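Ticket reopened. Same input as before:
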Amino acid sequence: SPLPPIDFRAELNDEQYAAVTAEPGPALVLAGAGSGKTRTLTYRVAYLLHQGVQPNEILLLTFTNKAAREMLERVEDLTGIPRRYLWGGTFHSIAQRILRQHGELIGLKRHYTILDESEAESILKTAIQARDAKFIKTKNNPKPKVLHNLISYARNTCGSVHDEAADRYPFLDGMADKIAGFHQDYQKAKLEQQVVDYDDLLEYLLKLFREHPEVARQYQDRFKHILVDEFQDTNRLQSEIVDTLAAHHQVMAVGDDAQCIYTWRGANFDNIMRFSERHEGAELHKIETNYRSSPEILSFANDVLRAQPAGLGYNKELRAVNDSGEKPYFVPLMDARGQAQFIIQRLEGLVEEGRDLSDVAVLYRAHYQAMDLQMELTRRNIDYQITSGVRFFEQAHIKDFTAQLRFASNPADVSAFARFTTLLPKVGPKTAEKLHKFIRERAEKLEQNFVDVLCSEDVLKKVPADAREEWPSLAETIRELVHALSEQAPQDLVQLALDGWYSSYIREIYPNWTERADDLQSLVAFAARYDTMEELLAQLVLLASESNERSPEDLKNCLRLTTIHQAKGLEFPVVFVIGLADGTFPLKRTIDEGDLEEERRLFYVAVTRAKEELYLTYPMLNNQGNQVMRLNPSRFVREVDPSRFETLRAAPARSW
Ligand code: ATP
Ligand code: MG
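Engineering reply: fixed in the latest deploy. New output:
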């Protein structure tokens, strides 16, 4: 049956129309944020279907599976063709689909399983231990997690693990050879267990195509049209896949180099350059109109890009077509708490003006920045949804840390005890339970305090040998907490725990421990709001469990909290970008290292999510409970012409 007519001319501008109706052949659409790149791809699919292309001859590659689903739903609306007939998804999901079918040709059984990050790391760790028993225990050697990242980076950039390791550890003799060896063993172990990590999915797909050209040909012939969104953030491995599948140059890619924010995962602007080399005669389309944002927001965004050092990227000044609106607001506030209060206050106003909560998004650089806001929202029963990432209080390190406080205030709490003791090597839930029972019985028998027994030699003997080194420091922290419990305020107790065992533990375990340390430090200020430990603990439990009680329907009309990375491609009528202080955004590390360009692009991505209203909030103080630090406004805002925004004095001026 014929498809419902679509007036492509009316739905698209000339530049978009040209791309949508382009003859088969390679094409590259390079255009700024909100110019309709994603829309162009969506209409391209609908157009091809109108031209008689079969649904299963089209492949759509996107950055998230959700993005693919939304685009194909739109295609379904436009054409009536059910989205399940089309191939769309991330590189990983497409690779997975093909490998399930042909993986056996390269030694992958049909039932292979996919590892998550932590499972993959633990296999690597086992491989390291098997090859070199002393490696992990030796101080200054990179941790398994760091090595896993290194290996992954090398693979995603199609480089060699050996070279990458030699690059990163030039002064450690023989280190590169060692790491390359770990990598080999790691690969072998996974194959033996018939498990694959994310990078394997992509590498195995290429291997399959390389070793079985007839399979490659099948897909090269089958996909008459390959469409790629967010091309600027594909890495070398992914672009190899595009190039292999697009053997007939039947590929259209869209992207914006100014929005490249995944270089840390191997994304590389060179891919855009290589595209024209690999697919000679590629048609280049540019779109210069922005349909998303008000002219005011767009002028601000253009200024952000103008602050880039000359010569970086394509020059893309965007033209606004939307009605004039309000200038972006720059809002200095006392601290993170003031920030949260301002947002809530503004939110109430917005709802009164007739906005839905789902019209609004709060964006931030790192998850911990949203902690105060999450608290206020919870307290006031305002629904919010966090895009990916765990809610602040549900994060493992927050729960591990606060379990110590829970336990100190109630030593009968076995699960709190197990939560932190099982962090020690060779201590599992069973051992933890046994230890707890032993200590309890011993304390009763000797008529001693539970925590004094906890620190005794008798108990140490019961602790598995591998955990004995760390045990005394852990036990001592708990003992101090218990003794301070009745005398000290909650924030002092949190500080006491921070000075104890757990902080040195995370240093050993997590390569990115500083972020976690920041999270934990922010708990001191959080605790300062409670008079007693009981109140604090009750609140923590509430905050950590609350998301489980929501049904998906509840989540429809709710505020969106998200990192900027996760907000790629999305748009909202009202956007708050929080934490605009030097050291927070841009991050301190990037300032110190003079490595600001990716941060700046990230800021550009953030502000270009907004359609009508944009609030940039700046906490003037970093309030850590016991310690207050003054912060400067973000240089990214200072670089913008002051006439482009309005400063809103929401907080009463106060001297410090
Ligand atoms: P990003 O770089 O952020 O991914 P994008 O270039 O993919 O942005 P889209 O999300 O496709 O931009 O479009 C931005 C907004 O503008 C969407 O709401 C889209 O529907 C609208 N839009 C794009 N082109 C047109 C047009 N020709 N007419 C009306 N609306 C349009
Ligand atoms: Mg897009």
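Confidence is low (pLDDT under 50) at residues 546-552. The CA atoms of residues 176 and 651 lie 54 Å apart. Please confirm and we'll close it.
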